[in-house]
Specification:
about 150 residues; mainly alpha; D-Maltodextrin-Binding Protein, domain 2; 3-stranded parallel β-sheet; 3 strands; about 45% helix
């Protein structure tokens, strides 16, 4: 299943970049996959999982390069300013493309104008967990407990 997903993503990537090839065959040099987070996180691990099969499919090396900081803005600006030739791509979580514009109204880029998504690679569910002694086993109970605690401290 995981291998199929990687192959599908590589196929989407190839189809999306065919127009970029112009007169020369693509790819003719190493591709840089920019990761806007530090090594070891889920986006970094996903990048490093996708890069080898993508390299095998494309016949060129794909190097993962971490550019963390500023809620992904450093990496996004780097990719936005790169030539639109398919040799620099970015693996992002949706948070980079949705949270940064909401938190920082004056970004150096426009997520709708300056980037084009080429495929979904994975979904990562997020969950709430609490210490087992906390008297809340649902999100509703946790919210009620928080409200009760807030009222008690006022």
């Amino acid at each position: 299943m995981k291998h199929r997903l990687v192959e599908a993503c590589a196929a989407v990537f190839l189809v999306a970049t065919v127009g970029v090839a112009q007169a020369q065959s693509y790819p003719s040099k190493t591709i840089r996959m920019i990761c806007p987070f530090s090594p070891g996180g889920n986006v970094d691990i996903t990048s490093r999982t996708v890069a080898p099969p993508l390299a095998n499919t494309l016949g060129q090396q794909v190097i993962v390069e971490n550019r963390p900081g500023a809620t992904g803005q450093i990496a996004a600006q780097l990719v936005m300013e790169a030539p639109a030739d398919g040799y620099m791509i970015m693996m992002v979580s949706s948070s980079v493309m949705t949270n940064a514009p909401a938190v920082y109204p004056k970004l150096a880029y426009d997520i709708l104008q300056d980037f084009a998504p080429i495929g979904r690679v994975s979904e990562v569910p997020l969950v709430f967990v609490v210490h087992p002694t906390l008297p809340a086993t649902t999100t509703k109970e946790l919210i009620a407990l928080g409200k009760k605690s807030a009222r008690a401290s006022c």
